Predict the structure.
Amino acid sequence: MIKTILFDVDGVMLSEERYFDASALTVWELLHNPLYVGLAGDQFTPSPDEQTIRRVRETVFATDDVLNFIKSRGINSNWDMVFLAFSYQLIRICEQLQGERPELVNELLCGQVDQQRLRQLGEAVGSAVSTPLDYAGFTADFAKGKAQKAELLTYLNHIAKERCGVETQSFSRNSELWKLCQETFQEWYLGDERVAASIGRETAQPGKKGFLKDEIPIVEPAKLREILLKLKEKGLTLGIGTGRPTIETHVPLAELNLLDLFESDRIVTASDVLEAERAFPEHAPLAKPHPYCYVKGLLGLHTEIQQALFHPLPISNGNEVLIVGDSLADLLAARAIGCRFAATLTGLSGQAARSKFEEEQADYILDDVSQILDLFT
């Protein structure tokens, strides 16, 4: 008998579209803003209109083929998606520079890459990089290997060796480049007004209004509130395990009048995951499909990081816990925990994801989260 339900947010309660838009814009900025690489060929602006946003996303993610591939390999974090997409283009730029500046390429790929390093690369590029960026090449190169989940990030080291002939272990979630990708994404999603509360500094590039106020609920909020209230009336404990940071979870759910329906001690976000990674960097990454955020939600935020990280899995009472998510990463986390899993077909792939969830033998498959009440009637 299910006693606790832990919900993902993106693709379950809120649309992922704006997150993917922000991810594409982050890659675009790191490549074309003079504060970073500053490649010519595309005029950067921190306040793009909707037409530009659509064009950038279609280009950077190759009409979402790159996004679909990354998610199919078990990556659910937008920060990781940005790191993967940008790092791949960084390697391809270095590949073109290898003939003229091998010492620079070697130094860049083998060291820590920060904003200053990217500017140095941009200054060195000049006319040496004349071939258009190959965004679609991402999927072709990564498809050559079988890397899944966290291994996908370190597979960049293999691509650097294959493309540039450079042995490196610099591409990882503990790198300065990953942090730069993460913080720049936060600038886009939160905007100038809110970003300092998230990353501890103002935007490097002012002028971003943020997407937080443009959230799109998947199910009409009043209807979802009614459903969640009925679940609580049945004695179920409701929690959240999300790849969103805390501010990006609490603010929109509060505005939609849903936040109060979840146990405050069981709302676990990417901010909590980052805290755990800082405490135990040798175990990073802890983002989904790692089960940490859901285990923490099950045990409660008051639980010590170490206790949640090393909690025995699978749990003995798996039939009492249900995870509701839209991605393979959520399913893999549930499987690691040994609990039940309900897939919603409202993520990036929509109804097309049904066959994948059937193949993976999800316990339940829902057209959208509003159908969850059917599981308890």
About this structure: The beta strands are 4-7, 237-241, 267-268, 321-325, 340-344, 364-366. The chain has two domains: 4-15+216-376, 17-199. Residues 79 and 182 are 5 Å apart (CA to CA). The first strand starts at residue 4 and ends at 7.
